[in-house]
Amino acid sequence: MPHEGVLEIKNVTKRYELANNAFFTAVENASFNVKKGEFVSIVGPSGCGKSTLLRLIAGLDSDYQGEILLQNERVKGTSLSRGIVFQDHRLLPWLTLKENISIALLNVQATAQEKNKIAKEHISLVGLNGFESSYPHQLSGGMAQRAAIARALVHSPKILLLDEPLGALDAITKMRLQEELQRIWRFEGVSMILVTHDVEEAIFLSNKIIVMNTKPGRIVSEINIDLPEPRDRAGSEFGAIRRKIFEAMNDSAVIHEAIDNYSI
Q: How many whole angstroms separate alpha carbon 64 and alpha carbon 80?
């Protein structure tokens, strides 16, 4: 059943205080919405404020101007309503895969039998049946990230935040995990926000892409993606959207590199 979760980002600005009463603006006047069950990606060059914005949505930092509302309630601190997956899987090395997933259920009101059932269902969801007793060092990078996704989903968050979760994987594993992530998103029906440097990844996965740029970090474009499934990474429509994103970043060097690499 689709999860309830409508997120509103309203005129969010985040500044850091520097020496001599100076300030650095990491994010300036950012506004966008995430609908129930929508997959939204945030892309942009390094230093544009993507991860800063995700931290604010997660509730890891509350010192900002503007509003972040989840189902009309202001985000205040961390909450089980917002799951998060980082680039580093952050599994506890002394716990098995099942124990790592089950630990996220400690504060969930359910019986031990119910929690065991939930953990098993999510291990199956991410395709890790048979590895319940394995420790993190016995898992591949892709398997560890799938376990991290399962852990983030076991308490049925209203929205799942993904901070470069596939960024450290090799190209082949990354493409396979993109397909897995898309399958999990469709099955769970949970709203997702992905922060990524990989424009192709964003186009492949998303309903909508938020494009950011630097100095200061700001949203420069919001692009709706309506491509047929399965999405053809080599197709002309895919390539046209890729170029549109690079042009929105207003970086001619990046645009030319894209043209050279992908023959847009």
A: 21
For residue 104, the domain's CATH number is 3.40.50.300
Q: Name every residue whose Cβ is closer than 8 Å to that of residue 142 and which is 6 or more positions away in sequence.
A: 169, 173, 176, 177
Number of domains the chain is built from: 1
Q: Is residue 2 part of a domain?
A: no
pLDDT digits (tens, 9 = 90+) for 29-60: 999 999 999 999 999 999 999 999 999 999 99
119 touches 153 (CB < 8 A): no
Phi/psi zone of residue 47: left (φ > 0), alpha (ψ -120 to 50 degrees), beta?
Answer: left
Which domain, by its residues, includes 233?
Answer: 7-262
Contact 13, 66 (CB under 8 A): yes
Per-residue pLDDT reduced to its tens digit, 152-186: 999 899 999 999 999 989 999 999 999 999 999 99
Taking the CA atoms of the chain, what radius of gyration do you get in angstroms?
19
Closest to 181 (Cα-Cα) out of 235, 155, 130, 145: 145
In a domain, 1, yes or no: no
Determine the 3-state secondary structure of 136 from DSSP.
helix
Helix, strand, coil in percent for the chain, rounding step 5: 40, 25, 40
